[in-house]
Design brief:
With about 130 residues, this protein is mostly beta strands. It has no helices and eleven strands. Strands 2, 4, 5, 6, 9, 10 and 11 form a seven-stranded mixed sheet that branches. The chain is globular. The termini are far apart. About 30% of the residues are buried. The mean pLDDT is about 95.
Length: about 130
């Protein structure tokens, strides 16, 4: 059974840092692709960052242009997926979701919410002074 549980959400000042965690069960990295999404009030859910295992066995990471250079996605051997958020901005305020899928994805599809089948409950990140 696939389960995803996010943690680490908080109130943080602009320019600060935060690390989100997504504890996963029931997934294997040779099959599952995992990504972070976010949804701000009144806006559509959008892809933030994704990670999957490439054909060479190495992790491949993908980022939305709005967070590239500020956010970093990673995972550990316990299959926990992290999103390190640096230099956060007010516009990063949203509910953040972790999601995973076994579907084959194109590069363009890695950050498309409709391609993901399993979701966490979401966690609030608020950036404000």
């Amino acid at each position: 059974q696939v389960q995803l549980v996010e943690s680490g959400g908080d109130l943080v000042q602009p320019g600060g840092s935060l690390r989100l965690s997504c504890a996963t069960t029931g997934i294997t990295w040779d099959v599952f692709k995992t990504a972070w999404f976010r949804q701000a009030p009144g806006k559509k859910r959008e892809g933030v960052s994704g990670i999957l295992r490439g054909l060479d066995g190495r992790d491949r990471t993908y980022y939305a242009s709005s967070v590239r250079g500020r956010f970093t996605i990673s995972r550990d051997r316990a299959n926990t997926v992290y999103l390190q958020m640096n230099n956060v901005k007010v516009e990063d305020t949203a509910v953040y979701y972790c999601a995973t899928t076994t579907r084959s994805l194109t590069i363009a599809g890695v950050l498309e919410p409709d391609n993901y089948d399993f979701w966490g409950q979401g966690i609030q990140v608020t950036v404000s002074s």
